[in-house]
């Protein structure tokens, strides 16, 4: 890689800051447990606020606890350019999921300050509340309310396993802000994130230019058969709900593989990740099985096709096995393409800096996907070791963090200084 700009972020300072934040909720195995609206989350937020203020920003908090650090522009009448991600983690999370995007944004602010750069438009760094969804069951919660996707009152009434509501959790850590949790006009949003998948690493590519997020469909499935004695019920008399479920899981996998593949970056995903078997006894043929099915695909048309054809195929499998299937669609989201101009800025930044880059679709949900419904948005991915995330062993190289942050810096600067 070669640097064609003399405006460089400080890779060492970035890495030191990543390691400093990783101490907050740091686990013995080298991961991070900084679950949303806990004391660890509060400590991370307090340090984030302190760092942003030291970098010349004013920090505002909205009623969902989303934090916005604003650096003034030369022309305050211009809409702000946003960047950011989330500081909360999974219970056994890593140091970089979310934190990289927030702390890269902090490094951008610090670099602007060091180089005495005043951008034309203001710049805002965001720390979104509860991206992970592991405590209250709503992933990307703060950005969803901000974007108007979930109503605030309903989200604030959600409870964790101990019966604590989101509203109580926010109050307990002192992060109910005075700003309404609603989208404000912004010129653009850029989110840097680790890929959380294996493509960049496998192809030896430094930067992922994310063009959008996949469409998804989720079903709850229930197969009804008949509980009966494992020792006495002959093959012809069995109504084995688990066998039906197994055959439907095969169908999910086959449907995914129909997409074809260009190797590791193949299209389409199909997964059954949860299964409940009743009565779940070793010597009873299961009479009832509940499970979840999800498909993801970059193409809305393909998801529509799966939505139309999958239920009949699955029902036929259930009937052929003497059982019945009910499928309830619980969730369907359209593919969310990112803004072409913002994506082009990421591409141009990677090219200018001499980094290898490829376009890709995000397999996971991100705050940026919600924000993209309101504000022109793009994402930057950096590789992570073995594609591993939501795991304490999640790992990236300092040079990878630096490259992603330098691209973020260039893209934000170009957008904030564009001629309007
Ligand atoms: Zn994340």
Query: Radius of gyration in whole Å, from Cα?
Result: 23 Å
Tally of strands: 16
Determine the fraction of residues in helical runs and give it as a percent range: 25-40%
Total DSSP helices: 12
What is the 3D shape? elongated
Give the ordered list of helices and strands. Answer: HHEEEHEHHHEHEEEHEEEEHEEHEHEH
Proportion in β-strands: 15-25%
Q: State mean pLDDT (0 to 100 scale).
A: 95
Low-confidence stretches: none
Estimated structural class: alpha+beta
Q: List each distinct ligand once.
A: zinc ion
Largest sheet: 9 strands, mixed
N- to C-terminal distance: 32 Å
Descriptive notes:
- This protein is of the alpha+beta class.
- It is built from twelve helices and 16 strands.
- Strands 1, 2, 3, 4, 5, 6, 14, 15 and 16 form a nine-stranded mixed sheet that branches. Strands 7, 9, 10, 12 and 13 form a five-stranded antiparallel sheet that branches.
- It is elongated.
- The model has no long low-confidence stretch (mean pLDDT 95).
- Bound molecules: zinc ion (ZN).
- The site of zinc ion has 5 residues, from loops.
